[in-house]
Amino acid sequence: MKCFNHLEREAVATCQKCGKGLCKACAEKHTPCLCDACAAQIQRNQQQQAQNREAQRKQKYKNALIDTRSEFIVTAVLGVLVGILFVWQETTHENVDTSFIGYAELFFGGFCIPFGWKFLTYLQSFFPVSLFGTFWFWFIYLAVKVFLSILVGIPAFLYQLVKVILTQSKINKLNHPLLLRAHTVEKE
Fold it and tell me: How far apart are CA 163 and CA 170, in angstroms?
């Protein structure tokens, strides 16, 4: 059998993928023993797989960022409802002379409670509470958690707000190359 690339030379090996005969010089080019065409094809396949893995990794990361943003929006909507409930509760009292600033403070305080609640629930995951307890245990537990939610609500809200702003900038950075590529394709 002759070498596929050098017809004047005797083949000493064959390509492990396609079976073409290879001389000593051709057989030593690639490990395992492959012809140039098969080695190039394998390299292209590996590069494509690496690009696909990188694209999947970026998409997973982007999805996690979008989930963070969505979670913030849901918590903010819940906070608006709690804030409205606090203001409504204050307006139903007959002899109350609350100013606009007072209503704004009530609204913002109520708005931040769900953020504090989520933060405390996160911390609670490190110290699980027993599933069993008396009625009074759970009543006191929930009362303490609501009170602590009020205290930590504002810092938790500010932390989440900064986190979402940074998340949005990361999403924009991830989208930027895609927008450039799409814009380039449209021009062609």
Answer: 11
Distance (Å, whole) CA 66 – CA 75? 14
Alpha carbon of 15 to those of 29, 44, 102: distances in Å? 11, 17, 82
Six-digit token pair at 66? 């979008």
- Give the Å distances, CA to CA, from 78 to 2, 117, 149: 77, 11, 14
* 123 neighbors 86 (Cβ within 8 angstroms): no
Q: Where are the domains of the chain?
A: 59-187
Cβ contact 65:167 at 8 Å: yes
Question: What DSSP state is assigned to residue 2?
Answer: B
Q: Does residue 32 have a cis peptide bond before it, meaning omega lies within 30 degrees of 0?
A: yes
The pLDDT tens digits of the residues spanning 85-133 come to 988 888 887 666 778 888 888 888 889 999 999 998 888 888 776 667 7
Nearest to 111 by CA among 146, 151, 154: 154
SS (H, E, C) 92-133: CCCCCCCCHHHHHHHHHHHHHHHHHHHHHHHHHCCCCCCCCC
